[in-house]
Amino acid sequence: EVQLQESGPGLVKPSQSLSLTCSVTGYSITSNYWGWIRKFPGNKMEWMGYISYSGSTSYNPSLKSRISITRDTSKNQFFLQLNSVTTEDTATYYCARSPRPNWFAYWGQGTLVTVSS
Amino acid sequence: DIVLTQSPATLSVTPGESVSLSCRASQGISTSIHWYQQKSNESPRLLIKYASQSISGIPSRFSGSGSGTDFTLSINRVESEDFSVYYCQQSYSLPLTFGSGTKLEIK
């Protein structure tokens, strides 16, 4: 069974970088697409980007040049880095798997990241 | 970006009633819409893919319909475990986008 688990700091200071890890078990990240999605307070959901089975990436233009998604295939993990965070980046962050850039059948449990000084 | 508008924002129903939740896209997206249920403190769960395709393990009371710009998620005879928030999401074009959600609550 595919399982995804997010990990990382729950508190980040404004202007710093947010870094999260998604650890995947039961399925190789060298297949399918692996994405990051966040849910803001108030329920708005935002797709942030993905890394594909080949290592190519696609990002939401709303995040401009602040985002980077990378991976470590030897550990079956992929990573999110979001730079220059503000309080508006406070959200629950999810990692998820999709067969193509379409629907997400498998999700991590989510991790709350608060941006505050 | 494709904007998805869900209505109503909140729907109050009695268990046993049947309901329809709406999702409207800002442009035609064929059938590239997917529906999720999210309960408090849980991850979203995929209910329907490509507007009407069922998902293994999802109760048959959930169904979807629509194409183009107008989509509907129907729940036949709502059960107590169904009270949660429902989201639509489009995959017609990047960036992938989500609707703002419909909260299904007990009347």
**Cα-atom radius of gyration of chain A:** 13 Å
Coarse shape of chain B: globular
**Share in β-strands of chain A:** over 45%
Order of helices and strands of chain A: EEEEEEEEEEE
**Quaternary organization:** heterodimer
String of helices and strands of chain B: EEEEEEEEEEE
The dominant shape of chain A is: globular
Largest contact between chains: A-B, 20 and 22 residues
Q: Unreliable stretches of chain B, pLDDT < 50, 5 or more residues?
A: none
Largest sheet of chain B: 7 strands, mixed
Q: How much of the polypeptide of chain B forms β-strand, as a percent range?
A: over 45%
Mean pLDDT value of chain A: 97
Give the strand tally of chain B. Answer: 11
Distance between the termini of chain B: 35 Å
Task: List its traits.
heterodimer; A: 117 residues; mainly beta; 7-stranded mixed β-sheet; 51% strand; B: mainly beta; 4-stranded antiparallel β-sheet; 0% helix; globular
Structure description:
- The complex is a heterodimer of chains A (117) and B (107).
- Chain A has 117 residues and is mostly beta strands.
- Chain A is 0% helix and 51% strand.
- Chain A has no helices and 11 strands.
- In chain A, the strands form 2 sheets. In chain A, strands 2, 4, 5, 6, 9, 10 and 11 form a 7-stranded mixed beta sheet that branches.
- In chain A, a hairpin with a 5-residue loop joins β4 and β5.
- Chain A starts with a strand and ends with a strand.
- The model of chain A has no long low-confidence stretch (mean pLDDT 97).
- Chain B is mainly beta and 107 residues long.
- Helix content of chain B is 0%, strand content 50%.
- Chain B contains no helices and 11 strands.
- In chain B, the strands form 2 sheets. In chain B, strands 2, 4, 5, 6, 9, 10 and 11 form a 7-stranded mixed beta sheet that branches. In chain B, strands 1-3-8-7 form a 4-stranded antiparallel beta sheet, with no helix packed on it.
- The N and C termini of chain B lie far apart (35 Å).
- The mean pLDDT of chain B is 97.
- Chain A binds chain B through residues 43-47, 58, 60-62, 94, 100-105, 107-110, and chain B through 32, 34, 36, 42-46, 49-50, 55, 85, 87, 89, 91, 94-98, 100-101.
